[in-house]
């Protein structure tokens, strides 16, 4: 198990979150963004998620933000209101120590507590073994691959769709 403490993110965590995501945008294929969003933009995104009541978590290790995870709307049309899409990013230096798993399990619990019924991961790059691995380990199943839908670093990239039911999933109809 990881030695990280997981807690809700605050605005004070956003400079570290911005730095972690900047690295993923500049050097990774998990995200299809090409230009790293600055602190102002990350703060706007954070506020929109907070205003929508979505969970946004950070993993703290040795007093610093080691990673973060959040859930947000999957798609804006209202029939999708019980479905969320998740994101999880760690500092590269602390991969494969159980922190991604720990963040994801807590995020799933937070979404279940809020009554969401499905979580969807849209994983950039079918070569992203870490992300596919952590989603598989947290109960997601493979839905399929959209081949060659992204162009980054001069090459075509797939997205991998994975999905996990939350709480009662599709076995009941929510009353609200
Ligand atoms: C994806 C990511 C969050 C995973 O977090 P992590 O802390 O490195 O992963 P964990 O140590 O918690 O791994 C949990 C399980 O996932 C699987 N896994 C993790 N990394 C893996 C890898 N590189 N290859 C295969 N399986 C892997 C394993 O089953 C692992 O359990 P094990 O170590 O007991 O075998 C992290 O690697 C990351 O930030 N990657 C870059 C950004 C990214 O891809 N984000 C996801 C966007 S959709």
Percentage beta strand: 25-35%
SSE order, one letter for each helix or strand: EHHEEEHEHEE
User: What's the rounded overall pLDDT mean?
Assistant: 97
| Radius of gyration computed on alpha carbons | 16 Å
Shape summary: globular
Q: Structural class of the helix and strand makeup?
A: alpha+beta
Characterize the structure shown.
It is built from 4 helices and 7 strands, in the order E-H-H-E-E-E-H-E-H-E-E. Strand 4 (83-90), helix 3 (99-113) and strand 5 (118-124) form a beta-alpha-beta unit. The relative contact order is 0.16. It starts with a strand and ends in an 11-residue tail after the last strand. Helix 1 packs across helix 2. The longest helix has 15 residues, at 99-113. Helix content is 29%, strand content 33%. The protein has a 7-stranded mixed beta sheet with strand order 1-2-3-4-5-7-6, sandwiched between helices. With 176 residues, it is of the alpha+beta class. The mean pLDDT is 97. The protein has helices spanning 14-27, 39-51, 99-113, 129-137, and strands spanning 5-8, 56-61, 64-73, 83-90, 118-124, 141-152, 155-165. The chain binds coenzyme A.
């Amino acid at each position: 198990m990881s030695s990280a403490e997981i807690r809700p993110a605050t605005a004070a965590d956003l400079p570290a979150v911005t730095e972690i995501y900047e690295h993923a945008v500049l050097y990774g294929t998990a995200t299809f963004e090409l230009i790293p969003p600055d602190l102002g933009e990350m703060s706007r995104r954070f506020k929109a998620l907070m205003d929508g009541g979505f969970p946004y978590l950070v993993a703290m290790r040795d007093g610093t933000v080691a990673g973060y995870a959040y859930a947000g709307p999957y798609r804006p049309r209202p029939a999708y209101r019980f479905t969320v899409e998740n994101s999880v990013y760690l500092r590269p230096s602390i991969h494969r120590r159980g922190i991604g798993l720990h963040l994801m399990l807590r995020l799933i619990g937070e979404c279940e507590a809020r009554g969401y019924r499905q979580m969807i991961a849209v994983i950039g790059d079918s070569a992203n073994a870490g992300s596919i691995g952590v989603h598989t380990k947290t109960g997601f199943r493979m839905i399929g691959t959209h081949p060659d839908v992204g162009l980054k670093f001069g090459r075509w990239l797939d997205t991998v769709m994975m999905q996990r039911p939350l709480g009662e999933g599709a076995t009941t109809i929510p009353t609200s």
